[in-house]
Amino acid sequence: MAKPKTWHSLPEYFALRALMQTGTTTGAAHQLGLSQSAVSRSVASLENRLGTALFEREAGRLRPTQEAVRLNLRLDPLFEALDRIDGQTEPVRETLRLIAPPSYAHRFLVAQISSFLDMNPAFFVSFEVNTSDEVTRGILDDRFDLGISGVEQSRAGVKTMPYRVSGAVCAMPTDHPLATRDRVGPADLHGQDMIALTRRHVRRGQLERLLHQARATPRIVAEVSTSFAAADLAREGLGLTVINPFPIYHYRAGDLAFVPFVSDLEYRSYFLVSETRPMTRPARAFMRHLRLNTPPDPFSRKA
């Protein structure tokens, strides 16, 4: 009896997946225990059968085409079935390599990672805190599986998926004269002590333009690099600050007054993953965990 067509194609599928994971024929050959020429022949045979190119050479590495990415995703059930049939007898802890900037990391993500691991004890998390620029570079360089950032950066090889959307708020001590307002506008900040984000933040320039249009000149008493630092200085009575309320509101709602800031300032939070590599199972599970377990607040919503 003739073998099903899928079995004849298995070597080609193994070569495709190994190249997707390693990016070089040398790495794929080492992973599969084959020669480089055998890997190249298998991929060439698959490309010939499909009638399309699956890889493009770029800076010494093989970059998968969109056709390769789509085919690799369709192969997930096959390889998962093979793993169940011929898998290791001992459970393997799958690792989530996660990176995020400080405003998401130190309080919000720490709590989410803890609950995620409680619910998924077979997973392991390697978590790095770094700048938003480094989040993007880490995904590009395959040092991380999943990034979370408040900055949308259009970069080839990185896919951004919306997570949360929020409007700007004015955070201030609860006894501040503006704390009882239903809302605060740019003109209301004239003459007020204010903690500002450093000028490397895009939002600093946007806020300054709004203040200029309203002919408002607050007194900048401090500059900080994160929204959490701005909120903490406001809590100490140094002044008010205009920030993204997510996720700070969850941790400072009892210490500060959060008043909607009337403007077109909008903040978006994103998941970042690779466009060229398949998303890992732990990364997919953690994204779902965050979407389901992010607590609601008055200023942000699901994207």
From TrEMBL:
Pfam families to which the protein is assigned, alphabetical: HTH_1, LysR_substrate
InterPro entries in UniProt: LysR_HTH_N, LysR_subst-bd, WH-like_DNA-bd_sf, WH_DNA-bd_sf
Residue ranges constituting the HTH lysR-type domain according to the UniProt record: 15-65
Coiled-coil stretches: none
Keyword list, A-Z: DNA-binding, Transcription, Transcription regulation
PANTHER family: TRANSCRIPTIONAL ACTIVATOR PROTEIN LYSR
Family from the record: Belongs to the LysR transcriptional regulatory family.
The protein, known as: LysR substrate-binding domain-containing protein
